[in-house]
Design a protein that fits this description.
mainly alpha; 434 Repressor (Amino-terminal Domain); 2 domains; 8 helices; transmembrane helix; Cro/C1-type_HTH; transmembrane
Length: about 160
């Protein structure tokens, strides 16, 4: 009746089941059906009836419309889900490092008193390091957060 490549409802059931972290057996137990029934719905051999769709939506914690029609067009993805946070953290980490390096050079450079009592150009490491250490730590934190977010995004079903 339904071909496998056009079975959008079955594909959505499968995707939502995996997103919820349920096996076919676990979902079948919640719906009081067999695992084969869930499998048949997902591959398109059969379609769930209306009551089964209602129970599926409840078990998967999704609106029934999402199982039938997919992601609703009238409801855009929230802004915080559209932002590539891992890229922002990576670039911000690099910027923090660069600005910290330049600020440390600027803070450490300047006029110093020479041994003969005159004034000359010099570099004060203490002033530079007081800028470099916090910049280094903040940059490492941001780059680590970027890595954690990118690994987490790769592991999503």
């Amino acid at each position: 009746m339904f071909r496998k490549h056009t079975n959008l409802v079955g594909q959505r059931i499968c995707a939502e089941r995996k997103r919820s972290g349920l096996s076919q057996e676990a979902l079948a137990a919640q719906l009081y059906v067999t695992r084969q029934t869930i499998s048949n719905w997902e591959v398109g051999k059969t379609m769930p009836d209306l009551e089964s769709l209602k129970l599926l939506a409840l078990a998967l914690s999704v609106p029934i419309e999402r199982l039938i029609y997919g992601e609703p067009l009238g409801f855009p993805v929230p802004w915080y889900q559209r932002i590539p946070w891992e890229l922002w953290c990576r670039w911000l980490g690099v910027v923090v490092w660069a600005v910290g390096l330049l600020s440390g050079i600027w803070a450490g450079s300047g006029a110093v008193q020479t041994p003969d009592g005159g004034v000359g150009w010099g570099f004060q490491w203490k002033s530079a390091l007081s800028i470099w250490y916090p910049a280094l730590i903040r940059g490492v934190v941001l780059l680590s957060l970027s890595r954690i977010l990118s690994v987490g995004k790769q592991q999503e079903p």
